[in-house]
Amino acid sequence: MRATPLALPMLFVAASALAQDGRDAEGYEARLATASVRLQARDFAGAEVVLRDAVTLDATRPEAHCALGDALRGSGDVPGASAAYAECRTKARGLAQLQLEGRALLGEVRLRLRSGPREAAQAALDALVRFAEAHPEVFDPAAAGRLAELHAARVARLAAHAELRARRAEAAGDR
């Protein structure tokens, strides 16, 4: 009985794996492109489906996680969007992709500024300011600081309005 050389079957397996990786990479990029068009059209549900498929193809890449956060934020899924942004930050940090890490932080800020609570918005802003100070080549620290100032002014304005409403209610009750 003649021994079959193992090199030939192993070569075939390696070539198949490389071809599959190439198709997956193309499929991943195609899904990102499709999702981008759907996000711009504000088709958040359609973008979510395509992005979840992209994540299934390659969960190690942060791009689809960031875009998924955008889609979920657009559809109002606050916990889902926050989880997607956190996953994007983790993957981006692991690959030293600072642009995507910054994008995820900014997405979280946008999410929290719209959906609160105020403490979560402040924590997200603080994280963005720290990131901008550490990486000014990615995000302008002055812009991050300005966002934090605008949020602080908004919080103060809301507190002043609440106090004014309480005084008016108290005055109306005294009549």
What does the model show?
The protein has helices spanning 7-40, 44-57, 62-75, 78-94, 98-115, 118-134, 141-174. By secondary structure, the chain is an all-alpha fold. It is built from 7 helices and no strands. The model is unreliable at 1-21 (pLDDT under 50). Helix 3 runs antiparallel to helix 4 (78-94).
Instruction: Compute the separation of the termini in Å.
Output: 107 Å
Q: What's the count of strands?
A: 0
Structural class: mainly alpha
Rg from alpha-carbon coordinates? 24 Å
Largest sheet data: none
| Proportion of residues in extended strands | under 5%
The string of secondary-structure elements, in order, is HHHHHHH
Assign a percent range to the helix content. over 70%
Shape: elongated
| SS field, number of helical segments | 7
What is the arithmetic mean of pLDDT?
A: 84
Q: Give the low-pLDDT segments.
A: 1-21
Outline the fold blueprint.
Layout: H1 7-40, H2 44-57, H3 62-75, H4 78-94, H5 98-115, H6 118-134, H7 141-174
Q: What is the structure about, briefly put?
A:
The protein has about 180 residues and is an all-alpha fold. It has seven helices and no strands. The chain is elongated, with a radius of gyration of 24 Å.
Please supply descriptive tags for the structure shown above.
mainly alpha, 175 residues, 0% strand
